[in-house]
Structures are given as C-alpha cells and as structure tokens.
Write a structure and sequence with these properties.
- The structure is a single chain.
- By secondary structure, the chain is of the alpha/beta class.
- The protein has one domain.
- The protein has 6 helices and 7 strands; from the N terminus they run E-E-H-H-E-H-E-H-E-H-H-E-E.
- The protein has a 7-stranded mixed beta sheet with strand order 5-4-1-2-3-7-6, sandwiched between helices.
- Helix 4 links the parallel strand 4 and strand 5.
- The protein is globular and about 45 Å long.
C-alpha cells in the first residue's frame, strides 16, 4: 500500500467564454513532500529577495510569468525534474468540441468541477494506492448543498482518505501544478487559435518543458514515463460518457 498526497488546481472556466476555450485540471501526486518543498521554498525566498518591491506575496503562477521573473520558472522546472517520483496528470476539456455539453450530465458548473475532479483522481490511482487530496480553494455556491471535500472523498472512500481545500498562496505544491497546467493550456491555445498573440516569454518556458519531456507538443493526449510521469488527457465526452457521472 502506498500513501500519496495529491495537489489539485485548475485553469479556465466551465461556463461558455469565448476567451477561454479550454478548461484544465491538474493533479500533482507524490509520496515524499519535504525535500521538494525545501528546494522550492529556497527558490521562492530567492525570488522575493530579487524582487523586493512586490505589492503582493509572491506565488508561482503561470499567468504571472513576465520579463522580471521568468528565469525563476526555469529553475522551478529544474527542481521539478530533479524529483522523478513526482507525477503530474493534466485533464483538459475543449469547450468548443462538438461533444462538450456538461449541462447534459451536471446541473451546474460547480457539480461539473466536482465530477471532473473525481474523474481525474480516480484515473490516477493504482489498485493499492491511497491518497489525500489538497485542492485550490473554490467557494461553494450558495445554491448548492454539495461540499467539494465530501463529494470527492465519497467517490472512493477506501482510497481517498481525506480531502481539503486551501488558498493557493499557502501551498507551493498547488503553485507547482498551476505552472504545469498553465503550460499545457498555453500550448492548446496556441495550437487551436491561430490569431492569438503569442507571449514569447511564456512560450520559452513551455518549449523548455517540452524539451525536458522529449515531446514536440503538449496539446494532445500524451503519457510520458521519464524523466517524470507526465500525462495529458484531452477528454472526449462522447468516448468517455460513462465517466461523466463519476
């Protein structure tokens, strides 16, 4: 029996938004937390000392990459790849796909978010795995009586032994998966929107990630086992209809 921590974050929205075609969920799965945390915390201290005039506490976030801080994201990826037992699993929904219709399966975007979270977690658990999920915080809608933590745990209580939500600034692990999801989402947007203005700084980070993984694209179904386990699952609601109400 192996016991893991699973850190979960998302990007985009499930509602229709012409500027956000893709919705993504990411799961960072690891057994040993301390060594990775120590190295990323040291890097964060380095960032803060290098950028002393920050108006807000610094977080590693893909959408915050800019010309002042981008070099630290290369260092972050180097740290990530120095821990080959850390798994990253990215789930992507193309909302412009002809089969995408979450209201057909869920009564709200909140319940869809819960459902897709269950799906991602369940499909990344081995038969003898147990996991504690720590997810980026989302406020439960007043119209819903479903709590994220309770619902996610209930889908497989024999393997998901606890769930909690925290603010992303409180977890370097959530920030790590944010960067990885953001890179995948960036590659999808650049592949499918030929009119998009490409951010060259972010593109450099994404290309570096692809080089480390040995792939030419993140915008497709992929499963890489070395140097780290890294998967991208472009969800097809028609092919995977049985998963929708997980």
């Amino acid at each position: 029996m192996k016991r893991y921590f699973g850190f979960l974050d998302d990007t985009g929205v499930l509602e229709h938004d012409p500027n956000q075609r893709f919705f993504g969920l990411g799961l960072l799965k690891l057994e040993e937390t301390a060594p990775f945390y120590q190295e990323v915390a040291t890097l964060k201290d380095k960032v803060v000392s290098f950028l002393p005039n920050l108006k807000k506490p610094f977080e590693f976030k893909f959408n915050k990459i800019n010309k002042s801080n981008y070099r630290f994201y290369y260092e972050l990826l180097e740290i990530y790849f120095s821990f080959p037992k850390i798994n990253a699993c990215i789930f992507v929904v193309d909302k412009m796909g002809i089969n995408f219709d979450f209201p057909k399966y869920f009564i709200s975007s909140w319940e869809a978010y819960i459902g897709y979270s269950k799906l991602l977690i369940k499909n990344n658990l081995g038969a003898n795995d147990e996991i504690c999920i720590i997810a980026d915080f989302h406020q439960k809608p007043k119209s819903s009586n479903k709590y994220y933590e309770t619902e996610v745990r209930s889908c497989n209580m024999s393997q998901i032994y606890n769930v909690c939500m925290i603010e992303s600034h409180a977890s370097l692990y959530v920030q790590m998966i944010d960067v990885l999801i953001g890179a995948v989402n960036f590659d999808f947007k650049n592949k499918y929107d030929k009119n998009i203005r490409v951010n060259k700084i972010k593109k450099g980070i994404v290309n570096y990630l692809k080089k480390k993984l040995g792939v030419t694209s993140l915008a497709k179904n992929i499963t890489i086992h070395k140097p780290n386990y890294f998967s991208v699952w472009l969800f097809d609601p028609k092919k995977n209809a049985s998963y929708q109400r997980s």
